[in-house]
Each structure stands twice: as C-alpha cells, then as structure tokens.
C-alpha cells in the first residue's frame, strides 16, 4: 500500500519546528508562517480569527498538497505598530480563550444533563 503512516501527518520529526516565520521582502508589514504537521482545520480557524482583527489587512492560508503536512499562512497588517507576528499571537490567544470557554460550557451542559437524567426530568412517561 502506498499510504503514508498516519502519524507522519501530526508528529514532528526530530528537530522540526512547529512554526516558522518568513517576512515578505516585497510587501510591507507582511509575512508567511509555516505551520508544520497541520491541515485545513487549523488553517481556517486561524484565518477567520485573523480577519476579525482590525489591524489585519489580509489573511489567507494554503495547504499545498494533501500528502504535504504543512500550512502556509500569509498575513499582511496595517501600518506599524501592527505586525504579522503580533497579529498571529493575538489570534492564537483569542482562539485559546474561546476554546476554554467552549470547554467550560460543554462541561456545564453535561453536568446539567446528568442532573436532569437523575431527577427524572425529561423522561417520557405516559
């Protein structure tokens, strides 16, 4: 079978960095982040969060090929002091906070469901 081992799609190789940044030499306040061992799931989340930032002029990502396990995230910001590194950092922090909130709400709803189930609420009795 020609398929690669699945772990190659998410495990970093020895010495491989998760994230690298390359400033754009032609466009001011722009650069490209390379995220190793990631796919569209993270790419679209980051892009959408970056576009919510008023200092971000452009945000897009590319997943070059299904068998290539990295993303290219291009960011251009408005004039200084905004910069792509700051925008990426802010977006990651915002997403982390949002996931923490979702986890908390999920746990609360599970607890509420268990309590309702134990008290008999919601059961269909005729």
From TrEMBL:
InterPro entries: RBP11, RBP11-like, RBP11-like_dimer, RNA_pol_Rpb11_13-16kDa_CS, Rpo11-like. It comes from the Eukaryota. The keyword Transcription applies. CDD domains: RNAP_II_RPB11. GO terms for cellular component: RNA polymerase II, core complex. GO terms for molecular function: DNA binding; DNA-directed RNA polymerase activity; protein dimerization activity. Its main location: nucleus. Keywords: DNA-directed RNA polymerase, Nucleus, Transcription. Residues 32-104 form the DNA-directed RNA polymerase RBP11-like dimerisation domain. It is found in: Nucleus. GO terms for biological process: transcription by RNA polymerase II. Belongs to the archaeal Rpo11/eukaryotic RPB11/RPC19 RNA polymerase subunit family. This is DNA-directed RNA polymerase RBP11-like dimerisation domain-containing protein. It comes from Fibrocapsa japonica.
């Amino acid at each position: 079978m020609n398929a690669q081992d699945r772990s190659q799609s998410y495990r970093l190789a020895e010495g491989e960095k998760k994230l690298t940044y390359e400033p754009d030499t032609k466009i001011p306040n722009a650069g490209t982040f390379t995220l190793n061992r990631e796919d569209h799931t993270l790419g679209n989340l980051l892009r959408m969060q970056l576009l919510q930032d008023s200092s971000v002029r452009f945000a897009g990502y590319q997943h070059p090929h299904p068998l290539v396990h990295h993303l290219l995230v291009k960011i251009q910001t408005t004039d200084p002091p905004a910069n792509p590194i700051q925008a990426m950092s802010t977006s990651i922090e915002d997403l982390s906070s949002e996931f923490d909130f979702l986890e908390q709400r999920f746990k609360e709803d599970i607890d509420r469901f268990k309590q309702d189930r134990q008290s008999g609420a919601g059961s269909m009795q005729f």
